[in-house]
Structures are given as structure tokens and as C-alpha cells.
Amino acid sequence: MVEDFLKQYAMLIADHPEKVRTELIKNSDHTEIVIFADKFDTGKLIGKNGRMINAIKTVIIGYKAKDPVTYKITVKAADA
User: Fold this and answer.
1) Above 80 in pLDDT, residue 80?
2) Per the record, a Pfam family (predicted)?
């Protein structure tokens, strides 16, 4: 559910939404969600001084009331 939300949200922000994809990586102590986007969209997703990604993380923290999983969010440039 969190992964789907992040993908849809990133697609709304990105100039090239067709290139946005997410990957879920489960570790023993946390779950990492990697958002892959066009290299020009990564800056938009991170935002000035990291404000956009921090806002996204704040929304995810609110979800922890329902699901006690710790999420780590990473934005990376998609390969071609």
C-alpha cells in the first residue's frame, strides 16, 4: 500500500511519469522503498534542501500508526 502510494505520488510530481517505478526491498530491521525516476525528475522528487522527500517521509511516518514497519525512502535515477 505504501509502495503504491509513493509511486502514484511520484508520478504526479514527475515530468516523465512513464519512467517512474518503485522497488520494495525488505531487510530484517526496515523496509526500503526505492523510487526510480528520470534523472531530471530526481531533483523534483527530492526538492529544494530535501523538503519534498522529507514531506513524503512525514506522510509515511503517519502510516506507521497502522503498520509498525520502519520505511526508508530512496530516490535514484532510472537507467535509460
Assistant:
1) no
2) KH_KhpA-B
Q: Which domains does the chain have, with CATH numbers?
A: 1-77 (3.30.300.20)
- Helix axes 51-63 and 2-13, enclosed angle (nearest 10): 150
- Amino acid 16: pLDDT: 93
C-alpha cell at 49: 534542501
How does pLDDT run across 6-19, given as a tens digit for each residue?
999 999 999 999 99
pLDDT value at position 25? Answer: 93
Neighbours of 10 (CB within 10 A): 23
> How many CB atoms neighbour CB 73 within 10 A?
18
Torsion sign, CA atoms 3, 21, 10, 37: positive
